[in-house]
Amino acid sequence: MGIRRGNCNRCPAANGGNRGLGLDSGGGRAILCPVTAPITALRPRAMLLTVDTVSKTYPGGRPVLRGASITLDRGQSLALTGESGSGKSTLLNLTGALDGFDSGEITLDGVALSQLDDAGRAALRRDRVALVFQQFNLIPALSVAQNLAFQARLAGRLDRGWIDEITARLGLTELTGRYPEQLSGGQQQRVAIGRAMAGRPKLLLADEPTGNLDETAAGTVLDLMLELVRDSGTALLLVTHSQAIAARLDRRAHLTGGRVAA
Ligand SMILES: Nc1ncnc2c1ncn2[C@@H]1O[C@H](COP(=O)(O)OP(=O)(O)OP(=O)(O)O)[C@@H](O)[C@H]1O
C-alpha cells in the first residue's frame, strides 16, 4: 500500500478528520494511524470479511441489526451466538449476499456488497461463498458424487482430485453412488459440507449445521467440518446456540440488541 503505518502526531478521529488517517510527527507525511485505522487497512492481506456497523430492518418489522460489526481473517473460524431472534441468521444471510442491508457496509474478499447489483451478488455467492444449513438441502435427483461435482462446476472449479479428497476425508467414499434419500441425517450433512467445500470457497457460512443431528452424529460432522475447513484455508462463520460448539472455533462473537459483542 502507498501509505505507511506509524504513530501520528494528532488523532484525526478526535479532530473530526478521516478515521484512520494521520500525519507523522516529523514531516507531516500521511500515515495509517495504528489506533484509529480500520483493521482492514492495517492488515489488508489477512482480512477476508468486514461487517461494518450494519443495520437491517425487515419491512414492517422492528430493527433486527443496529450497527453490527464483525471481522474475519482468511482461514479463521468465528462462532456467532445469541438469543433466539437476535438476528444471527439475518447477519449470516447478509454476509452471504442473500439479502440486502439498510446501512453500513459488508466487504468480502475486497468486494463492497452494497455496490453489487443482483448479478454481482449471484456471482459472489457462486464464486466465493458456500452455505450449509440445518436442513441439508441436497439435490434429491443427484447422487452424492453428482451433488459434489455440481457445486464445483457452478463455482467454475471442478477438480476431481479435490473432490476425491473431500469424499475420503468426510468418510463418503462408499456412498458416492447413493441418492440423498438413501442416507442418514449425519451422512446427508457430511455430503452437504462436502458439496459446500467442493468449489473451494473463500468463506463457508454455516447456520446451525449440526442442529438436526443426534449428539454422536453432530460431534462427528463438526469434527470433520472443522478439520476440512482448517486444512483448506477457508474461513468459517458458524451460527450456533451451543457454547460447546462455539468453544471449538477460533473466535466467538455474541449478538445482542442488534450489535455484536466480541
Ligand atoms: N424474512 C423475514 N421477514 C421479516 N422478519 C424476519 C425475516 N427473517 C427474520 N425475521 C425476523 O428477524 C428477527 C431475527 O431473526 P433471525 O432468524 O435472524 O434470528 P436468529 O438469531 O437466527 O434466531 P434463531 O436462533 O431462533 O434461529 C426475528 O424477529 C425474525 O422474526
Please summarize what this structure is:
With 262 residues, the protein is α/β, with parallel strands linked by helices.
Task: Itemize the secondary structure elements and their pairings.
Layout: E1 4-5, E2 21-23, E3 30-32, H1 39-42, E4 47-57, E5 63-73, E6 77-82, H2 88-95, E7 103-108, E8 111-112, H3 118-128, E9 129-132, H4 144-154, H5 160-169, H6 185-198, E10 203-207, H7 215-232, E11 235-239, H8 243-246, E12 251-256, E13 259-261
Parallel strand pairs: 1-3, 6-11, 6-12, 9-10, 10-11
Antiparallel strand pairs: 2-3, 4-5, 4-7, 7-8, 12-13
Helix pairs in contact: 4-6, 5-6, 6-7
Distance N to C terminus: 28 Å
> What's the number of domains?
2
Based on secondary structure, the structural category is alpha/beta
The largest sheet is:
6 strands, mixed
Strand residue content: 25-35%
Number of strands: 13
Low-confidence stretches: 10-23
Strand order in the largest sheet? 9-10-11-6-12-13
What is the CATH top level name of the largest domain? Alpha Beta
> Cofactors and ligands present?
adenosine-5'-triphosphate
| Helix-strand pattern | EEEHEEEHEEHEHHHEHEHEE
| CATH topology heading of the largest domain | Rossmann fold
Please tell me the CATH architecture of the largest domain by its name.
3-Layer(aba) Sandwich
Structural Rg: 20 Å
Gross geometry: globular
**Average pLDDT, to the nearest integer?**
86
Keywords: ATP-binding, Nucleotide-binding, Transport
Protein name: ABC transporter, ATP-binding protein
Domain ABC transporter: 49-262
GO cellular component, one term: plasma membrane
